[in-house]
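User: Reviewer 2 asked us to show a designed sequence for the structure in our supplementary figure. I'm pasting the structure tokens here. Could you produce the per-position amino acids so we can include them in the response letter?
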């Protein structure tokens, strides 16, 4: 036997031993569903009498100065809804979150009637697109919690807010949500795509400031009520961060269009810019759009974050200048940007080329409509006993209701922290960088601290709410005299209501102020 044959012969048994049946290949892990894109949709428009300026040129002035064909815009028009939904689908938006003010018992109340009246045309538009075989977003909910304020619903007592720890308050909360979904056929419901929330219906919750009280069981109450009304179904509660822990599934934050991307576990909220200068009495800073650069920059941050859900703030809230829908001025620019980055998000293509911003922060606006007497003054002050005011005024705001009584300014008692806001005259200081000293006289009792608009980049909202405790305190004749040091005070109207600082009372305490003075630090 030749050496070649011998090698072959000897090798044969070895090869045969290797020819055993192979185990079937392990199945490939299921591919993770792509992230989803949602947009908050304001359908409260009806030409010419609701959310339009009747005295301006059509679609060019007032709250809706940017809308295309404003005469065709109405929550009573299925044609309008169809046009908007078609654009959303083309831009890569999977979920529409209609803003909803439909408070049970107040469905016909002026100002919030649109919420119920618009649902029929909304569904009709979705049915039309389905019949035509055209793509359309599925429907979730953006629950505008403003309706928890009694005055919005026309409920008693006036000035009150719903207490979500009570049976009536919880019923109002859960019935608002379940009544809404009862009006939307299930075939149009949006569903979360990724486990463990797969199949859940998204419910985005606006800020907590409109409720009097709430607790950590609120999310469970909603889950129970939703399952009872819609057996086999469950909501995915996406709560604004102001609620804290209420048993939500996901957390988000409102204000991304102004402050920049809000990034949370599984969620990124973004917006294209902010400008509410058309609204009388507002002096909120402006976030420049920079011809789409800020929106692109925000999208890149969202994609880098790797969320399962991106929420766009907003599709069309025109009066705050946060819209990405078609407009007279911009055409379809923001639809194209949305389509580009939604595609990158879902395909895993990455965030794309770097985007540079000309404006690193919102541009502050002075309010020169009041306080001219403070110009050149050594200090500004407010005395509630005498009524004197020099370049300093209190601000009554949604999360800081106040009242004057017996020579004191009182905050409203409530569960958790409450606020008393003040605005400094922009004739005295505006967008500064100065160390100041604040002196206050008040009744003792409540645990109080101060949050002021500073240049501290580590502070909340880039220093807008920088917290400080009193540097000194002295009690005399039943009053507490405190001094607060405010290093690097900016005073650029960046707090709620264009305010510059606010007092905070913890644990439901009441703030009772006699006088407030603000000086340059000595």
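Assistant: Here is a per-position design you can include in the supplement:
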């Amino acid at each position: 036997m030749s050496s070649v044959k011998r090698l072959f012969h000897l090798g044969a048994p070895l090869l045969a031993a290797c020819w055993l049946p192979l185990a079937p290949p392990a199945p490939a892990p299921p591919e993770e569903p792509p992230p989803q894109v949602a947009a908050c949709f304001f359908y409260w428009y009806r030409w010419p009498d609701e959310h339009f300026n009747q005295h301006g040129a059509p679609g060019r002035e007032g709250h809706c100065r940017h809308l295309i064909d404003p005469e065709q815009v109405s929550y009573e028009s299925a044609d309008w809804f169809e046009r908007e939904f078609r654009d959303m689908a083309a831009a890569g938006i999977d979920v529409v979150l209609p803003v909803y003010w439909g408070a049970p018992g107040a469905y016909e109340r002026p100002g919030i009637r649109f919420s119920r009246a618009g649902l029929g045309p909304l569904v009709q538009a979705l049915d039309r697109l389905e019949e035509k075989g055209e793509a359309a977003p599925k429907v979730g909910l953006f629950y505008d919690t403003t309706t928890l304020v009694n005055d919005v619903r026309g409920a008693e007592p006036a000035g009150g807010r719903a207490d979500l720890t009570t049976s009536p308050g919880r019923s109002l909360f859960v019935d608002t949500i379940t009544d809404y979904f009862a009006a939307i056929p299930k075939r149009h419901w949006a569903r979360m795509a990724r486990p463990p929330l797969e199949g859940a219906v998204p419910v985005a919750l606006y800020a907590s400031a409109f409720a009097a009280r709430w607790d950590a069981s609120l999310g469970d109450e909603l889950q129970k009520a939703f399952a009872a009304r819609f057996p086999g179904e469950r909501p995915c509660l996406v709560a604004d961060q102001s609620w804290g822990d209420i048993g939500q599934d996901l957390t988000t934050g409102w204000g991304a269009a102004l402050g920049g991307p809000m990034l949370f576990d599984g969620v990124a909220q973004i917006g294209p810019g902010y400008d509410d200068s058309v609204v009388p009495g507002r002096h909120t800073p402006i976030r420049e759009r920079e011809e789409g650069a800020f929106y692109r920059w925000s999208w890149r941050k969202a994609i880098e974050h790797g969320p399962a859900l991106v929420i766009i703030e907003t599709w069309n809230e025109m009066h705050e200048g946060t819209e990405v829908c078609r407009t007279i001025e911009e055409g379809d620019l923001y639809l194209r940007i949305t389509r580009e980055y939604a595609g990158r998000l879902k395909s895993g293509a990455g965030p794309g080329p770097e985007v540079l911003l000309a404006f690193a922060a919102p541009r502050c606006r002075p309010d020169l409509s009041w306080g001219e007497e403070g110009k050149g003054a050594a200090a500004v002050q407010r005395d509630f006993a005498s009524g004197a005011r020099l370049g300093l005024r209190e601000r009554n705001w949604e999360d800081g209701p106040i009242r004057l009584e017996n020579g004191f300014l009182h905050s409203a008692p409530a569960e958790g922290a409450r606020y008393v806001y003040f605005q400094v005259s922009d004739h005295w200081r505006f967008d500064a960088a100065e160390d100041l000293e604040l002196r206050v006289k008040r009744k003792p009792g409540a645990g109080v601290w101060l949050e002021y608009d500073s240049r501290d980049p580590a502070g909340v909202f880039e220093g807008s709410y920088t917290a400080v405790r009193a540097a000194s305190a002295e009690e005399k004749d039943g009053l507490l005299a405190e001094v607060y040091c405010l290093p690097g005070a900016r005073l650029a109207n960046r707090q709620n209501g264009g305010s510059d600082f606010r007092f905070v009372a913890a644990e439901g305490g009441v703030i009772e102020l006699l006088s407030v003075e603000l000086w340059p630090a000595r």
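For the response letter, you might also mention the following. The CA atoms of residues 470 and 484 lie 5 Å apart. Residues 1-22, 54-64 have pLDDT under 50 and may be disordered.
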